[in-house]
Amino acid sequence: MENKSYWKGLAELEETPEFIHERDKEFAEELPIEEIFNSNFVQKPRARRDFLKMLGFSVTAATVAASCKIPVRQAIPYIIKPEEIVPGLANYYASTYADGSDYCSILVKTRDGRPIKIEGNSHSTITKGGTSARAQASILSLYDKARTSAPEKEGKIIEWSAADSDIKNQLAAIKTKGGNIRILSSTVLSPSTKNLIAEFGTYYGNTRHIVFEPMSNSGIISANEKSFGKKLIPGYNFDRAKVIVSFAADFLGTWISPIEFTKQYVTNRKVSKAKAEMSRHYQFESNVSLTGSNADKRIAIKPSEEGDAIIALYNMIAGFAGKTAVTGGKVSDKAAKSLNKAAAEMWANKGASLVVCGSNNTNSQILINAINDILGSYGNTIDLDNYSNVAQGNDKDFSDLLTEMEAGSVDALIIYNTNPVYSFSKGKKFGEALKKIGLTISFNDRNDETTSFVKYHLPDNHFLESWNDAEVKLGKYSLSQPCINPIFNTRQAADSLLKWMDSADDYSNLIKKNWEKYVFPTQTQELSFQSFWDNCVRVGVYEKAATATTTFAFAGDVNAAASGLGGKKSDGMELLIFESVGLGNGKYANNPWLLENPDPITKVVWDTVAMISVPYGKENNLVEGDMIEVSAGDFKLELPVVLQPGMANNTIAVAVGLGREKCGRAGNGVGKNVYPFVTMNVDTMNYSNSSVSVKPTGNKYELAITQTHGTIEGRNILQETTLSEYKKNPKSGNHSSEEFEKIDGVTLYPQTIHKYEGLRWGMNIDLNSCIGCGACQVACSAENNVPVVGKDEVRRVHEMHWIRIDRYYSFAGDKERVTKESHSNAIGLGNQYDDVKDWEDIEVVHQPMLCQHCENAPCENVCPVAATNHSSEGLNQMTYNRCIGTRYCANNCPYKVRRFNWFDYTTADSFPWNTYNKSEGVAMMIDDLTRMVLNPDVTVRSRGVIEKCSFCVQKLQDAKLTAKKQDRPLGDGEAKTACQSACPADAIVFGDVNNKETAVAKTREDERNYHVLAELHVKPSIGYMVKVRNNENMA
Amino acid sequence: MHAESAVRAPLIYGNKNYHQITEDICRPIESKPTRLFMITITFTALLMTWGLFMIGWTVWFGIGEWGLNRTVDWGWDITNFVWWIGIGHAGTLISAILLLFRQKWRMAINRAAEAMTIFAVICAGLFPIFHMGRVWLIFYNLPYPNTRGPVWPNYNSPLMWDVFAISTYFTVSLLFWYTGLIPDLATVRDRAKKKLSKFIYGVLSFGWTGSAKHWQRHEALSLVLAGISTPLVLSVHTIVSFDFATSVIPGWHTTIFPPYFVAGAIFSGFAMVLTLMLVARKVMNLQEYITLEHIESMNKIIVLTGSIVGSAYITELFVAWYSGNIYEQYAFSNRALGPYWWAYWGMMTCNVISPQLFWVRSLRRSVWFTFFMSIIINCGMWFERFVIIVTSIHRDFLPSAWSYYTPTYVEISIFAGTVGLFLTAFMLFAKTMPVIAMAETKHILRISGDAQKKAAAAHAHSHNDLSGTTQGH
Question: How far apart are alpha carbons A896 and B268 in whole angstroms?
């Protein structure tokens, strides 16, 4: 019966053609369109209903049309598309970041002709793909509006041709009268530029090239001259050293070649079951340097004690070798004990030990050479043959120049990439002396402190706009190539010199010729120069094999050195000037990324602070932010103090790098210039002062500090063990993982367990490798368009970094105390430790902290609008355009890694004139030019939304797509996060955890792997490796 | 007619009859506003305007205008939200739960308490709305089919539950309050002399004629709304407490929160009712309707809920210690001894110690002492919310992220603005609507009026005498 059918009428039953026609029509009656258009539509009287219909239609149509106004944006396609540029795809060009003593072989990522990111170049055997914070941030300086945009003569814009003819005439006049021409530069790594300067000298005669480095190592150079007849900075091999003793050499942070040394150093710091060996590292220093914070044992000594300590070490080593001792003062018992241990260990590891010293004192360096000589370090851990070309500053030459200038015997001075009016202690004097010179030219990129005294300001290109070469160590060549046309009307310094020599060549040709002449013949692989050149440009480096080491006899006078060094210990207050890890010598003081990158130790941003010891602070009732007046000689400076655990008592340490007056809007007036405290010894600059007086001024100052609490409060966050414990039991120190793994699968809600079919991203961070340098932080900001917020906002705890490095202190050898709780002052090592006498003896851990991409993420379930959610690959992802900004996720994040856009830091919101630009640093970052550095693959977040680490999802997608296009599975290490690739210590491993063959999956099986706050059962995707300390029996 | 024991104190004094009640309660509406009234309302309205301006300021420039930071993402905003919502609890409790318990003394205060509830919920609602970073996208919270996917809200989020809990609470409270107002508004309409006020009250009273059918429907609706409100009294603050209880943060992640929050809410709600009514009683000359018996009854509820809250505080401390969880232990020791110790001890003093004084009858019946205590309790309950929210998050799991929070003038202004809004609204209400439920008060006049009580007592007495005599025989 179910097929029974009904019909409405006979027509349906019979299915007449008329019926079918009518049935298939959408409208029963014909629409009167024809009728309307054919009739005299407008004049026809209309019924009331028609009126309403038309009214409704026209209002709706008008509304729809009016509300859909879309701004017209013109995208103009290439008429002739450059072969290598595909819109939306990034190109990478090998290049070299070489600026004074900073060196890094790099890859420049460009998008649509704009350089936007710097990565390390793994082809280099020097930097091996590592980068530093400064190398990462150097790209921002390309878009710095403070750069001079056109050549100027006495402050007025001038044509290049006019400037050239002016200068050529004057140079010619000087040449005829036999006048003196001086070229003052920072270290020049480029062999072609050096060559050119030499040729320029021959061309004009009476020319000298003086190299000035504000944080000088000329003591090492002259000591090597005196010891071995080699006037150079040697190559160091920290990777071959089993025992390292450093006297205040911050070789991981600032000393000579930190990226290279970090790469070397960590090879002996990584521990595995297969290789349960580590180097031993003693650090004797006054302040807590980045290197000291990584040492197995750091012994706080005052700067004036350093000489005696070096002598004591020499005497111990000499004693082992049966040599005569030299005389020196007494060292403290504590230091003597550690020196004894260090000496014995080094003697036991002859040929595999290394002593370095950061002092610029020639006598110190002669004794250090002597120690290294006895220990057989030369040819093993120190290489005089494969010497380094960085840090070529010569203090004597520079002070001679100043004398010459003051005497009026210099006729022309050309300043190239150096700024002595700011960075020399008698900068004002230098500035005055500049006025006496007839022809002064500056190639500096901005109208800085020195340049404002010169006549001709002929701005140099940024290194990303230039061709250049570099020879950082003997035979280790690298090339820079331009990645963008000059943004301003600037010209490369070398090209200017060529112009004045009436050369037809331009500098890029010159480099090519030089390479053809000097470099090409040293190799045999490539037959034609062109293919050799093309390959070098592509790879970025050309490295000759190392020269075989030869033996050198030590010829230094240790007795004379010791008598000039020993017995200097003073009991008064002392001052130590050191180089800031992030800002270096101050050249980058206008770089907001660096200004906002926390100091690795104090975590202070945007400021110069006086680090003082905790007992000193307590004795003098000083707390963080109190102002003191430090005076030495006739120079006084008021500085805010930071109570620094680990500081030598009665010592003040202050970093250079800030206090610029003419560097640009972000850096002007930030911090204080402490270079005037530097004194001149006979022929070297001296960075410590043992006769300073300190006076609290009673003023208060609010510092911007990103981490104010420094102990772990006995929590499971950090896990550490010692090497011998680790050898006995690889699981030692890893308290929590086993316990929590047991309950791993236990849940009341099995339906909520994520499956992760396919990829499952995970990360591992090795606490043994991480040195805390902060390169990852800058790399992350660059890759992910993380806004800079400025000093006031950091004071208000509004910093935006997606990755931070937590730095925790503990008292060395006092395991029990560390676990006690305290509610105390800002440093978090509270009053109850008053009975602990040794504030100098502390240990430090650096722990990078970023979004942990939890499997059971507490942030995900609390968002009312599901703006943060879980991907099928284990990413905890933020949907910015969905976020309404309740900030519940940030409250509920146990790791506190979520960041809220408190203000319109980026001009990304649609409100006019509400942008946060109270800080000059932010104002610079929202400038149209500076915004060119933004990564187009990453949304610029608007005000009112939460953001956080995405595991660089744009890079992951890119790697996946590349693999997919090539129809193959994704390989291990193809997808890298920005922090990972920036890390000079290879502390971060990232990849697919589901694939058991990947490096990161293997770390999951490692006994040292643990998860921070595993007890919360949030199941983080980031594992940390238990820190292993090799610190037993170090006295 | 129900009879009531003569031992119970009368609830209406002054030998009232129905007409006098109407006269007494309508007098403030029908008289000209006093100078004091005008000055006060000008001040509160200015305060409100300033607060609204500061809200606009925040919306325009961003939440950065507040003192919040990367560790403390909620501060005064959510503290004030929970505080106002708590205050709003008295109204429904009085209207619904006391109705079910047949507490006749609620008649004198229910109208004002309900009005207070509505204004408090409005004030409370401003905070979660304007604490959002992008308030213009507030509709993302609403579950409706949309063109964005569609993307639905996240029903796992307690903030989502809040949206429903608070909007439901507001709607039901408003209906309940307005339903009760209709007969009284009709009374005012009937007495109105000016054409305009007659028209306005006419519209507001929905054409009430007082017919039996009207009364029957009115009663039925009131009962239905009371039925709906009763669970709401418990659910709203329970859900508000889930904002914290479902998180992982030590000091928030606590199962005790729902009952503890509800008790605290009633505690603070009654305190606020007392604050307002003690003033209104004096200014509007209503001592005969809001008697010492009323005040004492409310104080008894304050002792009860205050003790519940106090036990909850002590239970939290005990559980933190007993759990052996170091984060939990730290969170609580940090409350008492950390940088925000003053907030914790302020809370303990105001909420635990001081209400215990109400065990003394003379203090319970002292108008001045009660007024003082009502302010103290409101401060204490504000501290409680501050302690829970800020002290817990400013030092959570990783010491590296610890920070401190102080409000800016913007946050303080917004809070002051809500106080202004609340007082302005309440004063306008008191000036334009009957603050005491006339019709309901008339219901109980024959049972609880003093003259009627006396008459009944006299009658009962003579009856007793008679029976006694009879027995004696």
Answer: 33
Average pLDDT, chain B: 88
C-alpha A868/C-alpha A846 separation (Å) is 29
A·B CB contacts under 8 A: 183
Distance from CA of A665 to the nearest CA of B (A): 23
Residue found under tokens 């609470």: B169
Q: What is the DSSP string of A43-106?
A: TS---HHHHHHHHHHHHHHHHHHHHT-------PPPSS--TT--TT-EEEEEEEEEETTEEEEE
Per CATH, the homologous superfamily of domain A224-381 is Dimethylsulfoxide Reductase, domain 2 (3.40.228.10)
State whether residue A894 sits within 8 Å of chain B by CB. Answer: yes
- CATH 2.40.40.20 given to domain A569-700: yes
Domain spans of chain B, in order of start: 18-396+415-446
> Chain B partners of A890 at a C-beta cutoff of 8 Å?
70, 73
Convert A739-776 into a string of H (helix), E (strand) and C (coil): HHHHCCCCCCCHHHCCCCCCCCEEEEEECCCCCCCCHH
Task: Name which of A808, A828, A858 is nearest B248 (Cβ-Cβ).
Answer: A858
CA distance A858 to chain B (A): 7
Whole-angstrom CA distances from B341 to A140, B79, B403 are: 45, 17, 15
| A807 in contact with chain B, both atoms CB, cutoff 8 A | yes
B243/A888 CB distance under 8 A: yes
Residues of A in Cβ contact (< 8 Å) with B56: none
**pLDDT for residue A44:** 63
CB-CB neighbors (< 8 A) of B321 in chain A: none
Helix axes A133-142, A775-784, angle to 10 degrees: 40
Give the nearest chain A residue to B389 (CA atoms): A891
Chain B: closest CA distance from residue A1014 (Å): 12
The three-state secondary structure class of A156 is strand
Which ipTM value was assigned to this complex?
0.91
B398/A717 touch (CB, cutoff 8 Å), yes or no: yes
Show me where the domains of chain A are located.
Answer: 10-67, 224-381, 569-700
A858 interfacial to chain B (CB closer than 8 Å): yes
pTM, 2 dp: 0.89
Q: Do A340 and A201 contact (CB within 8 A), yes or no?
A: no
Q: Where are the alpha helices (DSSP H) in A763-883?
A: 775-784, 791-795, 815-818, 858-862
Percentage of chain A beyond pLDDT 70 is: 95
Pairing of β A353-357 and β A1022-1025: unpaired
Q: With beta carbons less than 8 A apart as the criterion, state whether A399 and A420 touch.
A: no
Residue A992, Cβ density class (10 Å: 0-12 exposed, 13-18 middle, ≥19 buried): buried
**Which whole number is the average pLDDT over A927-938?**
91
Mean pLDDT across chain A, nearest whole number?
A: 88
CB contact, 8 Å: A712 with chain B? yes
Cα separation, A489 vs B374, in Å, equals 73
The C-alpha atoms of residue A404 and residue A389 are separated, in whole angstroms, by 27
How far apart are the C-alpha atoms of A928 and A445, rounded to whole Å? Answer: 20
pLDDT digits (tens, 9 = 90+) for A163-198: 999 999 999 999 999 889 999 999 999 999 999 999
Q: Is A1016 on the interface with B (CB under 8 A)?
A: yes
Contacts of B151 in chain A (CB under 8 A): 865-866, 882
Residue B28 to residue B279: CA distance in whole angstroms? 14
Name residues whose C-beta falls within 8 Å of residue A863's C-beta, 6 or more positions apart in sequence: A869, A883, A886, A888, A889, B154, B157, B159
CATH of B18-396+415-446, one of 1.20.1630.10, 3.40.50.720, 2.40.50.140, 1.10.287.1770: 1.20.1630.10
Q: Which residue has the tokens 């006054």?
A: A286
**Residue B62 to residue A865, Cβ atoms within 8 A:** no
